[in-house]
Amino acid sequence: MQHIKNHSLLSFMVSEKAQGCAVTNPATGEIIGFAPIASESEILDGIERASVAQKEWAAQPAKVRAAKLQRWNQLLLENKEDLGRLMTLEQGKPLAEAQGEVLYGASFIEWFAEEAKRTYGDTIPAPSADKRLVTIKQPIGVACAITPWNFPIAMITRKAGPALAAGCSFIVKPSESTPLSAFAVAELAYQAGIPRDVLQVVLGESSRQVGGIFTTHPLIRKLSFTGSTQVGSVLMQQSAGDIKRTSMELGGNAPFIVFDDADIDAAVTGAMASKFRNAGQTCVCANRFYVHSKVYDEFVAKFDAAVQQLKVGNGLDHGVNIGPVISEAAKQGIQTLIDGAIEQGAKPVSPIKQLDGLFMQPVVLKDVTHNMTIVSQEIFGPVAPVIRFDSDEQLIEMANDTIYGLASYFYSQNIHRVWKIAEALEYGMVGINEGMISTEVAPFGGVKQSGIGREGAKQGIDEYMDVKYLCFGGN
């Protein structure tokens, strides 16, 4: 690894004797390394240092911060192959997907490097001739984040990019399942000139401990969290004590809708991209499929035929499309949902193969009804339940019948229906004749219990800035 090896990729790993966090390859069960665990006093000291460093970082011209972020972006791109391999080893996703995530993660650093120079204020027409009214934007201060295991690089850069661009310092706690990618991308940030106190990666004795520190420490002014709705709710309650700013990207239950006027082949292609990326372990992946009765059989047949072509295995092996799920608990939870749906009357389109280890054969379930348990749960695995519908009104009611509102997808070639359905769906993001919607240039986020705030796009940097109003009198 050209750049990381100069500072030793193993520099952030510790021996088992040092009581580090063991990191396991989900495809093989082998321990691939150990990540350092910080004590509570070390975390508290890091927050103090971040507060001091933040003021120096914010004092630098935006152009200077932007240049360092651009260098970080370049180092991420130059190390794409090795970062991708590291991610596959600790997370399991196929190597091509992992390398794609490195590019996706780097895109946020590039985007916000550019946005650092565009945090414009306003000049406001005054109510009287002797006043001048202006607004400016200033960094909120020390920001922190808690990120998940399913996108161990992109979920960090999507938060760190805007925070650093805005002039905040940034402390992130990655998942204990995938911390090595976090330490690796931080090492590249340091090589790019970003101070170590400005960007910190920490693992504590437990997620609960670190969450408690982040949500109650008076020097931390912003918390960004990606994870479950249940945990997000707890973090918001804990953050209320000193009115911390929060951004929450939480659970999803994305409907994927195929109308009778849809291009069925295009819908199948979109369904495959949306559902089975990262073995279905994404918050925006299609979770339940609603297909009009007139095209139900055709879609199910073509969809299942495509699914049967997927190759399950170790993400480092050639041609693998589906890697392992993240843990035994995850596998058992997914299997419970499958078994429950079959008991309630659903039928697998093709025979289900039971695989060893943490691998699961992708499954398409037909004859699913809207009231089945699997329809209301976030599956987070390679399972696609398909439900019939007969009218637009029935579809809208079923699609919106969830506490979640992150992503949604539908296929139709009727422009009048497109507008009607797009406006009626209660989701923060809608893919129309498209199964892949995530990009750094568009705002990412949900409504209802899928969260608050937006990441990416021009809105992303505002999450880390305060608007200050200046009133000049006596003019």
UniProtKB/TrEMBL annotation:
| GO biological-process terms attached to the record | gamma-aminobutyric acid catabolic process
Pfam families in the record: Aldedh (PF00171)
One annotated GO molecular function:
succinate-semialdehyde dehydrogenase (NAD+) activity
- Active-site residues, as the UniProt record annotates them: 249
Q: Which PROSITE patterns match?
A: ALDEHYDE_DEHYDR_CYS, ALDEHYDE_DEHYDR_GLU
What EC number(s) does its UniProt record assign?
Answer: 1.2.1.16
Q: Where is the Aldehyde dehydrogenase domain?
A: 18-469
**Known InterPro entries for this protein?**
Ald_DH/histidinol_DH (IPR016161), Ald_DH_C (IPR016163), Ald_DH_CS_CYS (IPR016160), Ald_DH_CS_GLU (IPR029510), Ald_DH_N (IPR016162), Aldehyde_DH_dom (IPR015590), Aldehyde_DH_Superfamily (IPR050740), Succ_semiAld_DH (IPR010102)
Kindly state which keywords UniProt assigns to this record, in alphabetical order: Oxidoreductase
Which protein family is named in the record? Belongs to the aldehyde dehydrogenase family.
Protein's recorded name: Succinate-semialdehyde dehydrogenase
Question: Gene encoding this polypeptide?
Answer: gabD
